[in-house]
Design brief:
Elements (H helix, E strand, L loop, with lengths): L1 H18 L7 H14 L2 H32 L12 H26 L10 H8 L2 H12 L3 H14 L4 H12 L15 H14 L3 H24 L19 H23 L12 H15 L3 H14 L4 H14 L1 H5 L5 H24 L17 H42 L15 E4 L9 E5 L4 H8 L7 H11 L22 E6 L1 H9 L5 H21 L7 E12 L10 E6 L4 E3 L4 E3 L10 E6 L5 E2 L2 E4 L6 E5 L6 E5 L6 E4 L1 E3 L1 E10 L7 H13 L7 H4 L36 H7 L6 H6 L1
Antiparallel strand pairs: 1-2, 2-12, 3-4, 4-15, 5-13, 6-7, 8-12, 8-15, 9-14, 10-11, 10-13
The structure holds 2-acetamido-2-deoxy-beta-D-glucopyranose (3 copies).
The site of one 2-acetamido-2-deoxy-beta-D-glucopyranose has 3 residues, from helix 13.
């Protein structure tokens, strides 16, 4: 009895708690408070607000999902009314809808304190969270309050989604060298279990460890279906009046239900792409779900588990029934296992159900496309043509042809215009290639060591004496050789702007460095700002500024340009071999590339189009030292293999060349020591004059105005070491955006992997034996 009343009392307590459930604090306002605290330098508050923002967003997501799944289950189940009841069926249908709506309202009210639609946020904020910006702020705050391990995890989490973010990369390098930081601290706090398992699976698979990869792929599938359920249930949101003014929206009952439901189904279908996308990538992994079975069938086969191999091959064939290789594999497995036994094994039930539902949705979506013109982009490649209405298919085909024709026409037009413009601007240049060099070097100490002829190419030059030994030393003081403290200031100075990391479209392109080397860089403006804060010698920064202009004038004069050269980007870069000495390094420190076109070595072509920096016309590299091993500069043919000339770096030596297809170049691996150089790119097009350079010009004017030429006075501008620079919208066009994620694995992107996946060799010997 006592127990009974106690539990009643407890129930009441629970009820009361629910009735007065505090509203979940909206995460947008928390995020906002976090950002504001950041600019006040109130690190504890940054941590409190940002952590809570992340938590509340996750809570909201969780509650939404659980309510939707719960209400879906509790109100599902068709009643067995006779078909000829007509409109009464509608009533029972809508009764179920209302039950479900009521269930949702109740559930969300209890869990969140209001309906979840109350928490709608703008797309900009969602983007911040997708880009994992809160971790960018958190990272600084944790660092400031000496929670280094948390800072490392936040930095890593942010970097995973922003692999082009140079400064965060530098921070991570810095953390790696810090005492007390463990490998295991570099955690991705937002990792999706299904993707993580998949990646582990592929890693083992690639290492030919079948026994190890199988559990990961199986687990990945399990997690995939959980994630899929969650992703789909989040689609049941409010109608998005995208493109409509909702005041003018006057669809009738069935049209509006259709509109909304089609939108929801579209969203559910797009879960395929969402689940297949890795953080920091634009494109989903193709055929993600089917590929699990492609890997698995081969892995099971390697383990001689033919039962499972048959099952997985059959499952894969559900998606691609005509896949030749998989059909051959199935024949092979069946033969080994015995026809009888193999015929009893069927494809996986959950995948059958998945495909059935997906096809039903696609059918409805295509119907809506055809009937109401509501666009649907199928995320899957395995959809059979029969699902698409013939009329729609014909219409689409016609549209595609028209679109292709228009694109082609526009393309031709653009090319014509481009050619005209280029002919105009390059006319004189192209005509006199080869003649157009050998101009005066302008400066007394500078001498030409090799011209195009000696360098076995065109528009190439090597000069010595561009700067003195002393100047080299002065410039080297800007590099990380100073000390860890100086380095951290470089790392921490600029990256904090949440909006500053729009990459430059180099995703997936070659990395400017290899995992074997550390890589640090600083631009002229950065150096000047650091100098201004007395974090590096201001004199060195000024010299850096002066030297870049000297090189610009030298290149302009030597190549006899009749128009001025403008800066496109300048960068002081050091590359260090990580170990004391690395035997057998075969990788290039900087892979062969051309500066203003995309090099396709296999095709012997260099294509001048985005995302290459097509506006770059001349390039120069000024070396600051030679006391390292490896690291020679090379020019190659278009094949990126045949080396035509090799240049040994040394202090004061400059390599200059035109940036086009005629000059593919690269750098051999640095095997010992540190190699430092100033890399410069120039353009003849004033529209591409670098914005950072203009800022640097202004800063120089400000710092060294005539009445204040005494250099020593510059550095007394006192700044406390404490203050991390408040986010200056950094405008640097990110040359460094070329970084690719060394850790990431490209699944199935290389043909060799695919070939490998495709199964056992069906050579004649095996066949006859069977
Ligand atoms: C094949 O793998 C499944 C699942 O791992 C296992 O249950 C089964 O015993 C295996 N069969 C053989 C013949 O190894
Ligand atoms: C940079 O050039 C200016 C103008 O030519 C000169 O006055 C100044 O001393 C130079 N600074 C350094 C550090 O070389
Ligand atoms: C140019 O080619 C010749 C002949 O192949 C070679 O001996 C020479 O070293 C090359 N020049 C440079 C600078 O590498």
């Amino acid at each position: 009895m006592a127990l009974y009343s106690l539990s009643i009392w407890f129930l009441l307590l629970l009820l009361r708690d629910n009735l007065f459930a505090a509203r979940l604090e909206p995460y947008d306002s928390l995020y906002d408070s976090g950002v504001q605290a950041y600019y006040r330098g109130d690190w504890q508050s940054v941590i409190l607000s940002m952590e809570k923002a992340l938590l509340n967003r996750e809570l909201l997501r969780r509650h939404r999902i659980s309510c939707r799944i719960q209400c879906d289950r509790s109100t599902a189940g068709f009643t067995d009314l006779p078909l000829d009841w007509g409109p009464v069926q509608d009533l029972t249908f809508f009764q179920r809808l209302m039950d479900r709506a009521a269930c949702l309202r109740r559930c969300e009210g209890e869990k969140i304190g209001a309906q979840s639609t109350y928490y709608l946020t703008g797309p900009e904020l969602e983007l911040e969270f997708t880009k994992r910006s809160p971790y960018n702020y958190l990272q600084v705050a944790y660092f400031k309050v000496h929670k280094i391990n948390k800072a490392v995890a936040a930095a890593h989490t942010f970097y995973m989604a922003n692999p082009d973010h140079m400064e965060m990369r530098q921070n991570l390098e810095y953390y790696k060298m810090m005492e007390g930081v463990k490998e295991s601290d570099f955690r991705d706090l937002e990792a999706k279990p299904h993707m993580q398992e998949f990646r582990l699976g592929v890693r083992h698979y690639t290492d030919e460890e079948s026994a190890l990869c199988i559990p990961h792929f199986e687990k990945a599938l399990e997690e995939y279906f959980i994630a899929n359920l969650e992703c789909r249930s989040l689609c049941d949101g409010p109608y998005d009046y995208d493109g409509y003014n909702y005041m003018d929206y006057n669809a009738d009952l069935f049209q509006s239900i259709t509109d909304h439901y089609v939108q929801v189904m579209n969203c559910r279908q797009s879960c395929v792409s969402e689940l297949a996308t890795q953080p920091g990538r634009d494109k989903p992994i193709e055929d993600f779900l089917p590929s699990h079975f492609n890997y698995l069938q081969f892995a099971y086969y390697s383990m001689e588990n033919y039962t499972k191999a048959v099952e997985c091959a059959k499952t894969y064939l559900l998606f691609f029934p005509d896949d030749e290789v998989m059909n051959q594999n199935l024949v092979y497995y069946t033969a080994v296992l015995g026809e009888q036994e193999a015929s009893l094994i069927s494809a996986r039930e959950d995948i059958k159900a998945y495909i059935r539902r997906s096809l039903l949705e696609k059918e409805l979506l295509y119907f809506a496309y055809d009937a109401f013109g509501i666009a649907f982009v199928d995320p899957d490649k395995w959809t059979p043509d029969t699902v698409i209405p013939t009329r729609l298919m014909e219409k689409q085909k016609a549209e595609r042809e028209t679109a292709a024709r228009i694109t082609e026409e526009i393309g031709n037009l653009m090319k014509e215009i481009e050619n005209l413009v280029e002919e105009k601007s390059k006319e004189s240049l192209d005509l006199s290639m080869g003649i157009r060099e050998g101009g005066p070097v302008l400066f007394d100490d500078v001498s030409v060591v090799m011209n195009s002829k000696a360098l076995n190419g065109s528009q190439r030059v090597v000069t010595d004496g561009v700067i003195s030994e002393e100047e080299c030393r002065e410039l080297l003081r800007l590099t990380n050789k100073c000390n860890a403290k100086c380095f951290i200031s470089i790392g921490f100075l600029f990256y904090v702007t949440a909006a500053a990391f729009a990459g430059d479209g180099y995703r997936g392109a070659n990395s400017p460095h290899t995992p074997n080397e550390k890589f640090y860089g600083v631009t002229v403006l950065k150096a000047l700002k650091l100098g201004q804060e007395a974090k590096v010698p201001l004199r060195s920064a000024y010299l850096y500024y002066n030297v870049t202009d000297k090189v610009r004038r030298l290149v302009e004069s030597y190549f006899r340009l009749d128009k001025p050269l403008y800066f496109s980007y300048s960068h002081l870069v050091c590359r260090s071999a990580i170990d004391e000495k690395q035997e057998d390094r075969k990788d290039l420190s900087h892979p062969v590339h051309a500066d203003n076109c995309i090099l396709n070595a296999e095709a012997n072509m260099c294509i001048k189009e985005h995302p290459a920096y097509t506006f770059r016309d001349y390039s120069a590299i000024l070396y600051l030292n030679g006391d390292f091993e490896g690291g020679n500069f090379i020019f190659t043919e278009l094949d990126a293999k045949t080396v035509t000339a090799e240049v040994r770096p040394q202090c004061g030596r400059m390599v200059g060349f035109s940036s086009g297809a005629e000059n593919p170049h690269g750098v051999y691996a640095v095997t010992k020591g540190q190699r430092c150089a100033v890399a410069l790119w120039f353009t003849l097009d004033p529209r591409h004059n670098e914005r950072e350079r203009v800022q640097a010009d202004d800063l120089i004017k400000m710092l060294f105005s005539p009445e204040d030429t005494d250099l020593s006075s510059g550095k007394t501008k006192d700044t406390t070491d404490e203050g991390v620079q408040k986010a200056t919208p950094s405008t640097h066009s990110d040359e460094t955006g070329k970084i690719t994620d060394a850790e990431s694995i490209t699944v199935q992107s290389s043909d060799s992997t695919l070939e490998h996946v495709l199964g056992p060799p069906l050579d004649s010997e095996v066949k006859t034996e069977l």
